[in-house]
Amino acid sequence: MSVLDKVVKNVTEAVDHAVHPQHGSHPHPVDPRAGAVEPLLFELSDPGRIGVSLPDDDVPVAPLPAAHLLREHLDLPELSEIDVMRHFVRLSQMNYSIDSGFYPLGSCTMKYNPKVHEDVAILPGFAMINPMQPAETVQGALEVMWGLQEALTQITGMDSITLQPAAGAHGEFTGILIIRAYLHSLGQDQRDTILVPDSAHGTNPATTTAAGFKMITLKSDAQGNVDLEQLSANLNERTVGIMLTVPSTLGLFEPNILEISARVHRAGGQVYGDGANLNALVGHIRPGDLGIDVMHINLHKTFTTPHGGGGPGAGPVAMKAHLAPFRPGPVIERYEADGAVGFRPVMPEQSIGRVKAFLGNFGMFDRAYTYIRHLGLRGLRRVSENAILNANYIRGQLAGTYWLPYDRINMHEVILSSKNLKRDYGIKTLDVAKRLIDYGFHPPTVYFPLIVEEALMIEPTETESKQTLDDFCAAMKAIAQEARENPDLLNHAPHTTKFGRLDEVTAAREPNLRWRPAAPKS
Amino acid sequence: MPYIPNTDADRQQMLASLGLTRLTDLYREVPASVLDPAIALPEPLSESEIMAEMRRLSEKNCDAAHYATFLGAGSYNHFSPAAVYRIMSRGEFYTAYTPYQPELAQGTLQWTYEWQTLICELTGMDVANAGMWDASTAMAEAAIMATNITKRKTVVVGSGVHPHYREVLATYAPPHGVTVQTVKATADLDNLGSDVACVILQQPNFVGTINDLSTMAAKIHAAGALFILVFDAISLGLLKAPGELDVDIAIGEGQSLGAPQQFGGPYSGMMAVKEKYTRSLPGRLAGMTKDTRDGKRGFVLTLQTREQHIRREKATSNICTNSALIALANTAYLALMGKYGLRRVAEICYNRSHYLAGQITQLPGFTLKNEGPFFKEFVVETPIPPAELNHRLLEHKIIGGLDVSDLLPNGWLLCVTEMNSRQQLDGLVSALRAITGAAEGQGNGR
Fold first, then answer.
1. Of A23, A434, B266, B301, whose Cβ has the fewest other Cβ atoms within 10 Å?
2. Which residues of B touch A94 (CB under 8 A)?
3. Are B133 and A131 a contacting pair at CB < 8 A?
4. Which DSSP symbol is given to B316?
5. Is the alpha carbon torsion for B99, B102, B107, B113 positive or negative?
6. pLDDT for the residue A12
7. CA distance A299 to B321
């Protein structure tokens, strides 16, 4: 069968399956080389193939260290360059990405990644410098970091910042350690409890534990806000502070935020701001004005450094002046000497120490700085306005079709629920998500926040057009209709993809985490 | 604005559909006192203007494309085949996120499984996770993991471990109630206390020395502790693998494997363990499984009950996003290098660094200080302060080694990779001769 015939057959089967879903699998043996699945690098390997050209010896060969220090085997695959290139291109074609379509993954801010950023990041003056170089040889890089420090402090309304943390969760950990060091400096080591709303991302409670504190969960009220009475009841001399996501993971602006931070401060606590949702605020609202003492910023969300298939990110931490002496370093300082301006790394005096080797994820700093300088304040304000408008538009379009747990103006994301479809037709959020794939969309975040049953967390971002949102909403409505008329179609979705639902239960029960060559047949 | 497609007409229609008239209506739950404060940012630039500005700033740096560099110390100027960048810059890879929907992310999931396998092959270990932020944070997480496994609270770390990694460990340890002890010589490991959770060593150590670790695991295990080894990925083309040394947790920096140095990050942390510690691993794991539709092979994220989004405050690590794109570069690099290439790169680093060490130590006042064989880095004592030497080498278009005067008087840590041609090595030697010769001349004149 030719490749074309196979494709036609696959598509025909997929369509057939979608129209006449059948129960049970129809196993047919798959040859990994037949094009149905991409072979592993190790299966493609052919002894003797070489994928690189390396220089010949131009110096005398030095005697090797003693044999017992050396390894005997190194079983890496053997491939030529074309084998490797085609393998990864084929793998890339099995991915969905922002460059290929709408990716409304709530709380992840999957906005378009401008291409000029990639050109900036590979300039040799940025890509080919060592973090241990003397400051006099990296003035341009230090200036970029200083400029980013300044811009982010302005945007957040804070006094000071460290760029060092590698990701949002790392920033949270850093921020809580800064609070810990500050309380210690006041002799308040008895404070050991952090309040975390039940809508929080899982990293907040995990961070609390990693920083050596206990956690109390605050229940949200019926409007999705922090319950002020419960808050006050839990504030005392043991309180380290509160971790608040602003806007909340419910996509809502906490209308009592000023009162919450005032109460926490009166009890001697600190307010930690999870900046995952800064895209809703940028240019219009500064977390520093809301009573937040310290916060992290996800450069890979708001400032559109690429998500990379799961990182790298960067999680700078911005803070008020009273916490600044404790921040990890080095941080970048601007100075003037002999009439000239220079930049140098310095360690804050009471620093908690390094949280990472070197200065931080510079490859994210140059991209984020480019974005901020490119857009300016005017552009950043349009970012948050359009992000909020897009999310509210989706709410308006889908409110009658899906259950809306909080019927009020939302910020940059909207939480819907398939609770109604589950009740009426037995269709779960997972089924809706998988069916969206057939319509060409990446599903939203599902089953989060945990406090909303059958949650669908939709964050469109500002980089999507009304036309895309209309197409998405039409698909969501069509799926709701299918739930009524042909629920089986949803139970088995997706149908049009190369891969159907994968067996996660077996994967966890009998973990196969690495390839091993088949045992030789005796 | 190029990144916002909606027009004013679109916005009006969208607002009208919500019964609103202007954008400010969207902010009515926000207290007026905090809305629209003054924010001082530079004026916006066009794309060509911002590119020119960033190019101008980049050209203020001395980079390895325009200078011969002999600086390593945890960030290395190794060769990366052109195909690696072409692979990692495919939008399908770099504009995707964590593979939450496996049907749409088989590309990411399969290469992650391949990365895990490659790291196992490289290290001789049983299981590797999907990667950490970098080696420094991976090492700190490994230490915390060892305290959780052994229920002990002391971490012993060798002074030959990268100083930044040790500083990160010192930051991570106290909130976990963990004490860190630094030991100078490997002999100090004979009498490990009963509260020692793990011993962390680095091979080659920070100044490039290859230590004989063949009896180390037995000593550490006899005390009931875990052996954590920080390895140099390129050195594993030649040196004994951590698995062959009976290491429990192997930690490495992925930057050397095809990723740019970019001033210190993003990098990728490698973490590989013995099979029995699989469920104690932080971070993500890709596993092989089957498509329920037709039984064909596929991949998913698995064993997620270890992770923070399920375990919340009971999680032992808060890591979420890692450094996938750099791990992809590492995967493509190892695939291209293969069995032959990695060994060959290691040999070139070894031969050229020994050639340079031989030449430099023939200069008056330069002495080799490594106690034993070295791999691609070595430390010399210099006749004039290394900081001054480094400054003067810039005139010769050379970035010198790291000033390690805090470790040893006038200590200078040099690094040689396959990117340093013989011409560069000889160029450094003649520049040093010129610089120190002048210094000697001044001295004699006094």
1. A23
2. 105-107, 110
3. no
4. S
5. positive
6. 44
7. 12
DSSP A136: G
| Amino acid letter, A428 | K
Model confidence pLDDT, tens digit, residues A379-406:
999 999 999 999 999 999 999 999 999 9
How many other C-beta atoms are found inside a 10 Å radius of the C-beta of residue B2? 13
User: Under DSSP, is residue B413 helix (H, G, I), strand (E, B) or coil?
Assistant: strand
Q: List the single best residue of A513, A515, A516 to mutate versus B (max B Cβ within 10 A).
A: A513
**Closest residue in B to A27 (Cα–Cα):** B294
Domain ranges, residue B414: 68-77+339-445
What CA–CA distances, in Å, run from A276 to A251, A297, A374, B391? 11, 7, 22, 42
- Partner-chain residue, chosen from B311, B313, B328, that has the shortest CB–CB distance to A309: B328
How is residue A149 written in tokens?
Answer: 């420090």
Domain layout of chain A by residue ranges? 103-497
Q: Is residue B293 part of a domain?
A: yes
Whether a cis peptide bond, with omega within 30° of 0, leads into B385 is no
Where among B333, B358, B388 does a domain terminate?
B333
- B325 and B349 belong to one structural domain: no
Residue B163: CATH number of its domain: 3.40.640.10
Indicate the pairing of strand B377-381 with strand B367-368: antiparallel
Distance CA A371, CA A117 (A): 7
Closest CA to B106 of B282, B291, B268: B291
Could you tell me which CATH number the domain at A103-497 has? Answer: 3.40.640.10
Interface contact flag, B286 A513, Cβ < 8 Å:
yes
Instruction: Count up the domains in chain B and report the number.
Output: 2
pTM score, two decimals? 0.95
CB B292 to CB A501 under 8 A?
yes
User: Do both B132 and B204 map to the same domain?
Assistant: yes
Q: Do B276 and B349 fall into the same domain?
A: no
User: How confident is the model over A127-174, as pLDDT tens digits?
Assistant: 999 999 999 999 999 999 999 999 999 999 999 999 999 999 999 999
CATH classification of the domain holding B373? 3.90.1150.10
pLDDT band per the 50, 70, 90 thresholds, residue A17: very low
